[in-house]
Design brief:
Elements lengths: L2 E3 H12 L13 E8 L6 H20 L7 E8 L4 H13 L5 E4 L3 H14 L3 E3 L14 E3 L4 H15 L4 E7 L5 H17 L3 E7 L7 H9 L4 E3 L6 H11 L5 E4 L19 E5 L10 H12 L5 H19 L7 H4 L5 E3 L2 E5 L5 E2 L2 E8 L5 E9 L3
Parallel strand pairs: 2-3, 2-4, 4-5, 5-6, 7-8, 7-9, 9-10, 10-11
Antiparallel strand pairs: 1-3, 11-15, 12-13, 13-14, 15-16
Helix pairs in contact: 1-2, 2-10, 3-4, 5-6
């Protein structure tokens, strides 16, 4: 388990921006400690690196403005090793040893579930940046998120597929593993929305987590009359599914989830991903206030365009500071989180409801071939919450 303190964050930014952030000693009463749980190692390290970029930028900008309620923000960043065990251990250390005021967790739904009971027991709120699983905020007043939920993105993609593309018959590639809540629950939510709300046909075909051979499922879809296939997944599996589908002559449209939206997808999908649409949490080409400046800052910091993980983490730390300002001194920061209404972040306007969930827009993107002949994502529609 590795711990990286805010002093390292300041040093990182110093080397890139020729600036220095004053970081008080660890036990200084002049700081508010915010815990960060993030995958810096393991299979999700690529996501963690992007999230840290957003956190580093937000932290720099926040502390440049001066103290928040008389205190500077100090980050205690812990690597969860992309695992349930690592997430649980990181949360325990943050609440017991460092006594943080809040934890920002940039992790998967499975890892969010691992820290959920610890948050409740320690009475330390958690703000999730990319954990979309419906269950992570249920029946726990200490779990919050600033991203959309699986139910929300299922409704958005179903509506887009039917109303905008007029796909009347669709398939769902469904993970049958009872432990993999993200792929399983999102697939079921999409199927239910398409059948119950739109009254259309859905063909569900399952597979077991861990498989790298989707040939039999692809052949079954190929023989069916479905026009589009919803495949809730993440990298690298989403890319592997696409590659095998096209290699086996399946030319039908694929509909993806937010887990597809990583540039690493194109390392796995092969030279012909075909027609694909997906849900997303952030669009760098958006005209939303602050997005242009954010993109410029991240490109200066990293040399690359920001991705959803980066933007969500950036908004999460800024929302945390806003919640600190909205809560009364000496009271639980949760009171401030519940007051987050129409917060104008780079990922869109965020409002946190009574259940700790974020009500916000969902971006629909299409996979395209860019001018440089490389594949990328293009924003084609924004779906706002009703």
């Amino acid at each position: 388990m590795r711990i990286i303190f805010a002093l390292i964050v300041s040093g990182f930014l110093l080397s890139l921006n020729s600036c220095c952030i004053f970081t008080p000693p660890e036990e200084s009463p002049q700081v508010t400690k915010i815990g960060i749980i993030i995958p810096k190692s393991g299979k999700r390290a690529f996501s963690g690196r992007k999230s840290l970029d957003g956190i580093f930028l937000a932290h720099d900008q926040i502390n440049r403005k001066g103290p928040v309620r008389g205190k500077l923000i100090k980050l205690v960043i812990m690597d969860n090793n992309s695992s349930v065990k690592g997430s649980r251990k990181a949360m325990q250390i943050l609440v017991k040893k460092h006594k943080v005021k809040l934890v920002i967790a940039a992790c998967s739904t499975a890892n969010a579930l691992a820290i959920k009971p610890i948050a409740a027991k320690a009475k330390v709120p958690v703000l999730l940046t990319i954990s979309t699983g419906n269950v992570v905020t249920e029946r726990n007043p200490y779990m919050f998120r600033c991203c959309f939920s699986d139910d929300s993105q299922a409704r958005a993609m179903a509506a887009f597929a039917y109303n905008n593309k007029v796909y009347t018959d669709v398939g769902v590639l469904l993970d049958l593993n009872g432990q993999v809540t993200y792929r399983r629950d999102l697939g079921r939510a999409f199927a239910a929305e398409f059948k119950n709300s739109l009254g259309r046909t859905v063909k569900e075909i399952g597979y077991q987590s861990g498989t790298k051979d989707f040939t039999s499922q692809i052949k079954e879809f190929k023989k069916s009359k479905v026009a589009a296939i919803f495949a809730p997944s993440d990298v690298p599996d989403a890319g592997i599914i696409l590659k095998q589908a096209r290699e086996n002559g399946l030319s039908k449209v694929f509909l993806g989830s937010d887990g597809w939206d990583h540039s690493e997808l194109f390392d796995y999908c092969g030279p012909n991903p075909g027609t694909c649409f997906l849900t997303s949490m952030f669009a760098p080409e958006s005209s939303l206030p602050g997005v242009k400046e954010f993109v410029i800052s991240i490109k200066a910091l990293t040399g690359a365009m920001p991705e959803p993980d980066t933007a969500q983490a950036y908004d999460a730390l800024n929302i945390t500071v806003k919640a600190l300002m909205l809560s009364k001194p000496g009271t639980d920061i949760r009171s401030g989180l519940y007051k987050i209404k129409n917060y104008p972040g780079v990922t869109g306007t965020t409002s946190i409801d009574a259940g700790g969930d974020a009500q916000k827009a969902i971006f629909i993107k299409k996979i395209i071939k860019k001018a440089d002949k490389k594949f990328g994502f293009k924003l084609i529609k924004t779906i706002y919450p009703k």
